[in-house]
Write a structure and sequence with these properties.
Layout: H1 29-50, E1 55-56, E2 59-60, H2 99-107, H3 109-118, H4 149-173, H5 178-195, H6 198-205, H7 215-228, H8 231-254
Antiparallel strand pairs: 1-2
Helix pairs in contact: 1-3, 1-8, 2-4, 4-5, 5-8, 6-7
Transmembrane segments: 27-50, 88-111, 151-172, 178-197
Keywords: Membrane, Transmembrane, Transmembrane helix
Protein name: Succinate dehydrogenase
Length: 262
């Protein structure tokens, strides 16, 4: 056993795999599928910002809600009839709010693991050679910004409530419309994903030393902990549900999907 001495201090290094991989299975398949899935979300998000078909009563595209710009938001799409951004703003209304749910997902603990492995290959999989020469974790710029995740969580809660409100309005005004139930399903998944966040679990009762003294917070923590165990599938399900719901509303708004049956 090698002992460290003051003359030969132990250096903290990442475990090294001397060959390209020790794996014999298709270890690259999961990172590849993750890369394709996350890339599709990014590509769709760019298209959604460019596209202006965001509203057909009573449906509003989730990527543009809450719609806060007076010049680019149809009257029925404005949240509570309120458009705090004046006529001077003529760009996509989605640009005003997409940074909030986008930042929440970008800094999410699960998504970090996903895109670290699939985009940065750091590391691509267990027992696979690390392609990067240095590893600093999340202690330096830009990855230290990941620490703002909790604040994006607060914003994501608000966005989730707005999407739930939009979905309820759609059901009230068009109870038999397929789009109404698509928006409801999306709101449920979005809010379930948000509440399953690790930060939410910590906020509810993470610092309590005696659960017995805080029974309500303990119940909340227990509920969030159950959701937290499903954080990964909820992350993927909500990602595709919000894309699907947004795409559906835009197709109805464009007349590609016949509105009487929508």
């Amino acid at each position: 056993m090698t002992q460290t001495t003051p003359e030969a201090p132990m250096r903290r290094q990442r475990a090294q795999v001397r060959v390209r991989t020790l794996r014999t299975d298709r270890w690259w398949l999961v990172p590849l599928l993750t890369f394709l899935g996350l890339s599709s979300f990014l590509v769709y998000g760019v298209w959604a910002i460019i596209d202006n078909s965001i509203f057909v009563e009573p449906y509003i595209a989730p990527f543009a809600s809450p719609c806060l710009a007076a010049a680019t938001c149809p009257e029925g799409a404005q949240l509570f009839g309120w458009a705090p951004i004046g006529d001077w703003y003529t760009l996509s209304p989605g640009l005003l709010i997409l940074a909030l749910p986008g930042g929440f997902r970008l800094t999410c603990y699960y998504y970090r693991k996903s895109y670290y492995r699939s985009f940065w290959l750091s590391p691509p999989a267990c027992a696979v050679q690390e392609p990067h020469g240095k590893y600093t974790g999340e202690r330096r710029f830009p990855l230290i910004i990941q620490n703002v995740h909790r604040y994006f969580f607060y914003a994501a809660i608000v966005i989730g409530l707005v999407l739930a409100y939009d979905a309820v309005l759609a059901v009230v005004h068009k109870p038999l419309g397929l789009g109404s139930w698509i928006l409801i399903a999306n709101a449920v998944l979005i809010n379930a994903y948000t509440l399953s966040c690790h930060s939410c679990r910590h906020i509810t009762a993470g610092r309590l030393n005696h659960f017995s003294r805080h029974p309500l917070r303990y119940r909340a923590w227990t509920f969030v902990s159950k959701l937290n165990a499903k954080h990964q599938p909820l992350a993927w399900a909500s990602m595709f549900s919000v894309m699907g719901a947004d795409f559906y509303v835009r197709m109805v708004a464009k007349g590609i999907i016949a509105f009487p049956y929508a």
